[in-house]
């Protein structure tokens, strides 16, 4: 019997479990979480067959999925390296920065276990087991960072085929730069706008309510989990600061064009940004 | 018979006309636009009863609505001051910056015509007469900037009651600061992110496609009309630069916290921004 061990039954972990259940109903799923309420819910809903904490039964699993925050994943990888795992086990994670995690997986990789980093590029500002749903990542990109050639990649794709994602194989550092640019910097930008707008209207908070759809759209991601985002800033700070500095440079250049009332440049920049952004909708 | 003159039959102008038609089907509506195709469409669809260019029949109107770009509105106000208008006429506009427009309306105001600046705080990244619809501004805020006490305000609200908006009376400069902060600065921020992201991946454009919903949401408003936005940068540049500088200060402060790995500060800022942003959804 194929056994899947999943540690961390939040938004992502429970979404992966739902997809595995749908596609491979015969697989046995063991769930681990720090929250008893979450484990109770998972058992009641039939999401998992057995529940535990820490690495309970991880040594009996054919697939190990680490779906906690990056700091937990790093610790889990160290702990797994102290255990004798099932031969042929495939280990993966869902952390949003990859170099830190690949580094932590080195002892496992060196002794021959198969580790494939993973990261689904979608999500929700919601969190928790009840927010997970089988189509959460549908049609989104799901990064895979193989570390032992192509070993285990097709098995992992098959395990998670119920997600209906677009798989994208990539190196850790390139992944971390992409997410710094397309996910982490946008989060910083949106947070700064929300923070500064709230400060501007601190004595007239009702004025914030005048915000139209454009403001709400631009700041939407500031609603995400602050614990997760603080950790991301820690784990990917070198590349976040690098891409943020490039962003600041661009913003200063636009500020200069506004100050100088350089209509030609402003029109050119707005036009190109419009065209680039429209391309993302196709 | 009540006659309404509307100059500029694009997204906003045609939306206002649709709302007037619905609520006051007996009113006569005269439309003016630089595009013959737009006027033809408006006549065919029964949106207007008569069509012309420039200020055709504006001198016979009980309501004059200027719905072109700000530069056109400013010119129209100067031209209107050369005409003898109908006694009791109420003049309004829909421009997104108000001080420039109120300044241009001074000659009309000084001779006793009633001018009430207006600005609906919603919209669409679409444009043109076919994108207008009667519920476009439903439940959004619609600023009014009266310049002759309360004269004409209730008549104007009644004329546009089919929009079902929340009216918000305000002074021109306060209006311009609010829109600088909640609309214009966000547009600059989103444009800079789109521009710099496209530059980062200029040799691998397919990587931009990896952007998840958060990036798309943050940059959505960069899709808006570049001509309109270049003009807004001109018309409100003093307040845009002022609020943008405050934003840059906040962003630099967050950058510093990331560089210093100041987890306590990052968590505090992310938490407050999350709470502030969630308040906007209620």
TrEMBL record, chains A, B:
Keywords: Oxidoreductase
Lineage top rank: taxon: Bacteria
Pfam families linked: PDH_C, PDH_N
Domain Prephenate/arogenate dehydrogenase: 1-282
Keyword match Oxidoreductase: yes
Pathway: Amino-acid biosynthesis
Family according to the record: Belongs to the prephenate/arogenate dehydrogenase family.
Protein name from the UniProt record: Prephenate dehydrogenase
């Amino acid at each position: 019997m194929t056994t899947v061990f999943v540690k961390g039954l939040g938004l992502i972990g429970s979404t992966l479990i739902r997809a595995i259940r749908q596609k491979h109903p015969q697989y046995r799923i063991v769930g681990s979480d720090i929250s008893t309420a979450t484990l109770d819910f998972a058992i009641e809903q039939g999401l998992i067959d057995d529940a535990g904490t820490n690495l309970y039964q991880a040594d009996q699993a054919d697939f190990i999925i680490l779906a906690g925050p990056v700091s937990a994943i790093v610790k889990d990888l160290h702990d797994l390296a102290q255990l004798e795992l099932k031969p042929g086990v495939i280990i993966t994670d869902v952390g949003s920065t990859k170099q830190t995690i690949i580094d932590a997986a080195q002892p496992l990789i060196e002794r021959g276990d198969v580790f494939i980093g993973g990261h689904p590029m979608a999500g929700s500002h919601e969190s928790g087991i009840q927010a997970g749903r089988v189509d959460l990542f549908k049609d989104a990109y799901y990064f895979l960072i193989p570390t032992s050639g192509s070993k285990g990649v097709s098995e992992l794709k098959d395990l998670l085929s119920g997600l209906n994602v677009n798989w994208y194989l990539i190196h850790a550092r390139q992944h971390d730069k992409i997410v710094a640019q397309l996910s982490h910097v946008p989060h910083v930008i949106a947070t700064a706008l929300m923070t500064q707008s709230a400060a501007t209207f601190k004595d007239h908070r009702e004025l914030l309510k005048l915000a139209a759809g454009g403001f709400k759209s631009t700041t939407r991601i500031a609603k995400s989990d602050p614990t997760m985002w603080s950790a991301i800033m820690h784990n990917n700070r070198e590349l976040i600061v690098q891409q943020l500095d490039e962003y600041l440079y661009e913003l200063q250049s636009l500020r200069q064009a506004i100050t100088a009332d350089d209509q030609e440049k402003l029109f050119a920049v707005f036009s190109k940004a419009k065209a680039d952004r429209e391309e993302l909708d196709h």
